[in-house]
Amino acid sequence: MVRDPGINTLSTPVGAFYLVRLFSIALGAVTITAVYRIGRLIAPQMTLVAIIAAGLLAVNPMFLFISAAVNNDNLVTALAAVVIYLLLLTLRDGFAFRRSLLMAFLIAMATLTKLSGLVLVPVVAITAIWIGYRDRDWRGLFALGFMMASIWVLLAGWWYVRNIILYNELFGTHMMVQVAGERPEPFTAATALAEFEGFRWSFCGVFGLF
Questions:
Q1: Are 97 and 143 in contact (CB under 8 A)?
Q2: Cβ atoms of 111 and 153 closer than 8 Å
């Protein structure tokens, strides 16, 4: 078998591609580790829960396929998993400055990586409000909110300003629709059920677009 000499050279496009694939695999490992740690937090007396949770993810065919591919899904998934772990720690132990700072940084990076990373914002915000109310720690709540807002503006805000300048919209979704194509019919409950079928297929493995 003849080997492509470009594979052994990181300065070539092929070598760079393989390097990014290794990075993607590392991100998959981060996600699995975070899921294991989440399992340990949820069931501290039952290690088997964490092992099963991480194991099911590690052997999922679609997760393995995506983790070995070059895309932005791996980064946003890893970031979200770590944020959820840190949020559960905060839910258990209360606010901590360093943990809140790290969480704010990871949220900003997730929203810069992919639009779906914005889902983390309301989840963390609602949970933080509950923690602040439970512990009467309004200072910790304000600190987390301030860090989330300021770090997001510094690290990710420029991308959304760019969307407004280029596409005259904050999220750029209208441009995405123009590229991918609009739905032939209005979105209804039946459409949602049809979309769920696609999610069910892709959970086990659809190695490509459908």
A1: yes
A2: no
